Amino acid sequence: MQRLLYAAPRGGFECILVLTGDKSQHASGNLLLDQLFGAEIVYVADRKDRDSILQETSDRATNEGKKPYLVPYGGSNATGALGYAFAMKELIDQNVSAHWIVFASSSGGTQAGLVLGQRIFGFSGRILGISVDESEEWLKSEVSKLASATSEKLGSRIEFASANVLVNANFCGPGYGVVTERERKAIHMFASCEGLLLDPVYTG
Description:
By secondary structure, the chain is α/β, with parallel strands linked by helices. It has seven helices and five strands; from the N terminus they run H-E-H-E-H-H-E-H-E-H-E-H. The strands form two sheets. Strands 3-4-5 form a three-stranded parallel sheet, covered by helices on one side. A two-stranded parallel ribbon has the order 1-2. The longest helix is centred in the middle third of the chain and has 16 residues, at 78-93. The two termini are 19 Å apart. The mean pLDDT is 90.
């Protein structure tokens, strides 16, 4: 999503972001970049209102005579997930041997694409999403529904069950992007021991 924001000014497009949370008086991190690249920011206090506000924002742009392209939370729709299904094919074609694929999962698009790719291209390992902000039950449901919907783009629907989606929500902490002492210790350990710089949301 950040890349879309960065490319928008160069293409002559306006970018409107719908973000969960209250407006900060001291922008840092991604929010500071959002402002630097000239995005209009709409804040949503409650996560449950996020999708409706996103649609309302798109409708407002339309009523103003603009032609908006609505990108869902995390870019998680069938088009986005399909890219990750074919990413799985690339891994298999390159003879990448792995027993597990483990990654940060939030809106479900990446994981939906990977589990679809696993099914249709025959990946024998297991796929585990580490939730960064949602419950295990919610994320499993979203991934299974999106994987099923994405399969239709390939010609026939494949049904995915929540019970067959692997999610670990034990590392969510107090909220999305909220850095606690545990994250600080993990980031410091990897930087000092391995020379790897982790971010405070997805990898830290």
